[in-house]
């Protein structure tokens, strides 16, 4: 794939997200919020007893299970966060696998990061439970997201398709969440596991990033990267991270590019049920450049052509720029956010 950037000089980037955009046609840019310290949390996280969470889930009843991963199970529950609260709050409770050391590490990572961050596009951690000893228990309590994940709505045939405008807003919100992690904190955070199943949707389909178990602090000082054992989900992991173990914020940008094409095509990052040439999404879409006559062939058929072709082409160009093999050629998430805002604004005028 020929890699090109839709972002030109630094000067032009500060004016707009695309070379043809004019400042006077765009909404005023949002002022950046002051950086948040990534230090010991000063928040209102509640420490629950194990008994409280066991009772809230009716002894972790299988009928209340709403999700399960390699390191734990998630249950829907109702619980009071304070004695003065009259009505119990609907929450999601994650119970970590006691036998998994990796699960304990992920619990610590989630508590470290979600206990500090505060952004409308990041899932909110409400409390936790920690029990040591032979019957060690590690649990986390989150706000409940009634519309499950972006993955469920993109790929489930039992649910109506996500409308085009909603898809754009989901992409923008998810990008703003990543940008906050990269730029909005005193210490950069690299998500390392950005994928459609980790983009949860609230009652208004506003997206919130979830599952910070693999997140870690980014390079500091003169460092250009952090060296770690490659982790993440196949199909979403940046190639240079897999090859070298060097992780930087541009790895998250690659993962975002993959999700961009999941949203456009309605196809999974990897789908073994398809012919071999189509199984890996990032390889398949290379045959349909954004400006080509055949571009429309990749678009999700469930949209029934109810979308702006020009905006779809622009979104695809942005997605391809995120998938540049050389990380230096990829945009930052700040540039991605700016570009998406501009595209959405143009599509509405």
Automatic annotation (TrEMBL):
<dbReference type="InterPro" id="IPR011009">
    <property type="entry name" value="Kinase-like_dom_sf"/>
</dbReference>
<feature type="binding site">
    <location>
        <position position="95"/>
    </location>
    <ligand>
        <name>ATP</name>
    </ligand>
</feature>
<dbReference type="GO" id="GO:0005524">
    <property type="term" value="F:ATP binding"/>
</dbReference>
<dbReference type="InterPro" id="IPR017441">
    <property type="entry name" value="Protein_kinase_ATP_BS"/>
</dbReference>
<protein>
    <recommendedName>
        <fullName>Protein kinase domain-containing protein</fullName>
    </recommendedName>
</protein>
<dbReference type="Pfam" id="PF00069">
    <property type="entry name" value="Pkinase"/>
</dbReference>
<feature type="domain" description="Protein kinase">
    <location>
        <begin position="60"/>
        <end position="344"/>
    </location>
</feature>
<feature type="compositionally biased region" description="Basic and acidic residues">
    <location>
        <begin position="8"/>
        <end position="17"/>
    </location>
</feature>
<keyword id="KW-0547">Nucleotide-binding</keyword>
<feature type="region of interest" description="Disordered">
    <location>
        <begin position="1"/>
        <end position="37"/>
    </location>
</feature>
<dbReference type="InterPro" id="IPR000719">
    <property type="entry name" value="Prot_kinase_dom"/>
</dbReference>
<dbReference type="InterPro" id="IPR050823">
    <property type="entry name" value="Plant_Ser_Thr_Prot_Kinase"/>
</dbReference>
<dbReference type="GO" id="GO:0004672">
    <property type="term" value="F:protein kinase activity"/>
</dbReference>
<keyword id="KW-0067">ATP-binding</keyword>
């Amino acid at each position: 794939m020929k890699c090109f950037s839709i972002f030109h000089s630094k000067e032009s980037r500060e004016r707009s997200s695309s070379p043809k955009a004019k400042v006077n046609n765009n909404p005023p840019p949002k002022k950046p919020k002051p950086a948040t310290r990534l230090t010991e949390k000063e928040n209102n996280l509640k420490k629950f007893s194990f008994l409280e969470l066991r009772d809230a889930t009716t002894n972790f009843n299988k009928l209340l299970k709403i999700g399960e991963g390699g390191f734990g199970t998630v249950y829907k529950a109702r619980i009071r966060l304070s004695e003065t609260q009259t009505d119990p709050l609907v929450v999601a409770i994650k119970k970590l696998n006691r036998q998994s050391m990796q699960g304990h590490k992920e619990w610590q990572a989630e508590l470290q990061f979600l206990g500090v961050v505060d952004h409308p596009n990041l899932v909110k951690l409400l409390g936790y439970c920690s029990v040591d000893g032979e019957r060690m228990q590690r649990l986390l309590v989150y706000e409940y997201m009634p519309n499950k994940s972006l993955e469920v709505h993109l790929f489930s045939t039992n649910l109506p398709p996500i409308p085009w405008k909603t898809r754009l807003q989901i992409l923008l919100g998810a990008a703003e969440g990543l940008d906050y992690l990269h730029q909005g904190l005193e210490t950069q955070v690299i998500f390392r596991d950005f994928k459609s199943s980790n983009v949860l949707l609230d009652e208004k389909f506003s997206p919130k990033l979830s599952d910070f178990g693999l997140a870690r602090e980014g390079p500091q000082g003169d460092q250009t990267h952090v060296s770690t054992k490659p982790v993440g989900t196949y199909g979403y992991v940046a190639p240079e991270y897999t090859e070298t173990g060097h992780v930087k914020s541009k790895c998250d940008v690659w993962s975002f590019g993959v999700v961009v094409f999941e949203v456009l095509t309605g196809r999974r990052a990897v789908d073994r049920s398809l012919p071999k040439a189509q199984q890996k999404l990032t390889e398949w879409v290379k045959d349909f450049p954004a400006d080509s006559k055949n571009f429309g062939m990749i678009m999700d058929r469930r949209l029934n052509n109810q979308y702006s072709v020009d905006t779809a082409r622009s979104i695809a160009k942005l997605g391809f720029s995120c998938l540049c093999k050389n990380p230096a050629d990829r945009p930052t998430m700040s540039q991605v956010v700016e570009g998406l805002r501009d595209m959405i604004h143009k599509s509405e005028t």
